[in-house]
What we know:
Layout: E1 11-15, H1 19-30, E2 34-38, H2 42-59, H3 66-69, E3 72-75, E4 86-89, H4 95-108, E5 114-117, H5 124-128, E6 137-142, E7 151-156, H6 162-174, E8 178-183, H7 190-206, H8 211-221, H9 228-235, H10 237-251, H11 260-267
Parallel strand pairs: 1-2, 1-4, 2-3, 4-5, 5-6, 7-8
Antiparallel strand pairs: 6-7
Helix pairs in contact: 1-2, 7-9, 7-10, 9-10, 10-11
The protein binds nicotinamide-adenine-dinucleotide (NAD).
Nicotinamide-adenine-dinucleotide (NAD) binds at residues 15-21, 38-41, 44, 90-93, 97, 101, 118-120, 143-144.
Amino acid sequence: MQRQSSKLFTKVLIVGGGLMGAGIAQVIAESGVQVVLVDQSEAQLERAKQQIEKMYNRRHPEIDVQSVIKNITFTTNMEAGKKCLLAIEAVPEKMEIKKEVFRSLSELLPDNAIIASNTSSLSIAAMSSVTKKPENVVGMHFFSPVPIMKLLEIIKGINTSNETVEKVREFGELIGKEVIIAKDFPGFTVNRALVPMLNEAAFLVMEGNDPAEIDKGMMLGANHPIGPLKLIDSLGVDVLLFTAESLYEGFNDSKYRPCPLLKRMVEAGHLGKKTGKGFYNY
Length: 282
Ligand SMILES: NC(=O)c1ccc[n+]([C@@H]2O[C@H](COP(=O)([O-])OP(=O)(O)OC[C@H]3O[C@@H](n4cnc5c(N)ncnc54)[C@H](O)[C@@H]3O)[C@@H](O)[C@H]2O)c1
């Protein structure tokens, strides 16, 4: 299932081989572009390879997954990607870790390289500030699972040049994504609209409403394909709380106040599907 190769970037460096990094590596490798996938852990690189094999085989059982795997170099050594003109960072959502990676990438890569972050909530401007070329820093926010979700949200930071945005937009389309452009404010576009709605659904439960009734209401009354509480359970209650907190703190506005029930659920270990219990039991 090879899509048109990119003439823009022939080799892309991805830093962080977790859930997102492996998914991003897969879609880029599927389009025939070489990928260097870097993680600090050998064991994680092995898991990344298994994730890609499983995901690809499920969607394309008739094609040998080696046609994709052969395009990916799995390594713990970032130097392997030193000639890349595009790097995408997918390390954990912590500003200190991101800045450290951005500093290293800025030293390692050619001056005209673009450095992108897959952050869901952190400031692109802050990451750009530690690099030599802040105009070449941009957000490329993929959605999970990356090979299935169509959207790529590109985030233009205060320092990001139009040329950088246009290059990553073109690349995003070449690897088969639908692209939207968002400004660099907490939650960007999708989470800014989605998270307050999910948070409000949690308030409805806290007030004594039944999760199944709320979900049915939103599916049949607002035409949503999945109810908000089912969606929270599948995203992770902890993930929603974290994003709700970053909106609340980022805007300093009480309208984003995270629902206290979410906090209690996280404290109790009710994180949704991944722990077997959230708003529903699994
Ligand atoms: N999980 C999602 O649904 C989702 C969706 C969109 C965006 N994101 C964002 O994507 C990023 C990654 O999320 P994830 O869910 O893949 O996390 P993850 O924890 O699954 O993966 C992070 C990986 O980074 C590696 N790592 C840590 N420090 C490193 C370093 N200095 N160099 C190289 N590798 C390093 C870890 O070993 C780990 O494998 C985060 O910024 C997150 O907010 C996540």
